[in-house]
Amino acid sequence: MSNAETSTNALSIRHLGKSFPLKDGTVEALKNIELEVKAGEFLSVIGASGCGKSTMLRLVVGLEKADEGEILLDGLPVQGPRTACGMVFQESRLFPWMSVEANVAFGLNEKLSASERQEKVSHHLELVGLQDFRKAFPYQLSGGMQQRISIARALVNNPSILLLDEPFGALDAMTRITMQQEILRIWEQERTTMVLVTHDIDEAIFLGDQVAIMSARPGTIRKIITVPLSRPRDRSSLEFVAIKKEIYGEFFAESKVQIEYAI
Prior knowledge:
The protein has one domain: P-loop containing nucleotide triphosphate hydrolases (Rossmann fold, 3-Layer(aba) Sandwich), CATH 3.40.50.300. Helix 4 packs across helix 5 and helix 7 packs across helix 8. It is an alpha/beta fold. A 6-stranded mixed beta sheet has the order 6-7-8-3-9-10, with helices on both faces. Strands 2-1-4-5 form a 4-stranded antiparallel beta sheet. 33% of the residues lie in helices and 25% in strands. It starts with a helix and ends in a 10-residue tail after the last helix.
């Protein structure tokens, strides 16, 4: 890969492999992952449970170490967590004893002045629509609102890339759709590079510029499908459904199961 190509990529994953020890041996979670995400791009990653999607994100954010291969963020090797990479988990993981504004401010650079910290927190609370709830505590808010706090906290240090590990999986259907629209609005406003892991094919197509399909364990990238649809996207359109069928077909190609598409 040329230097020019590297400079346009927020994330580069090359020949990535990861195994975990078991009592009676090892399990290979990821094998030969190759992935490039351009700056400002929204990538969706889908795959069956246990295929290593979350493990891949933990390696990217620096919470785990790879057995082989390399991960570059903005051209620099990942050697541990850093503020250039934010992450939102399926659970909100907020501190229940802290107010909304204190949760968002947690982890901000200590070198910032009090006014700079306040400005950053206020901006990101406004970004997620929770400026009127800054003094509230997590238990006083809905699941969707708690995830908005998590998104604000992950973005408050202005990371170049945001990783989303099934962040809407625990939400009800209507709240999930609302949060999909919210994260898309935030992406369009901030243009932060985003990588979303999800089981939901509709969600992957609705949000992603591209959809990376992972194989069963050991996880690898089976195929990357470009989504050439303008936003906002109509989930009932023929073009949307055609991409959905293509992804379903790729999912079940390994098992050779014949799928009837009632969509």
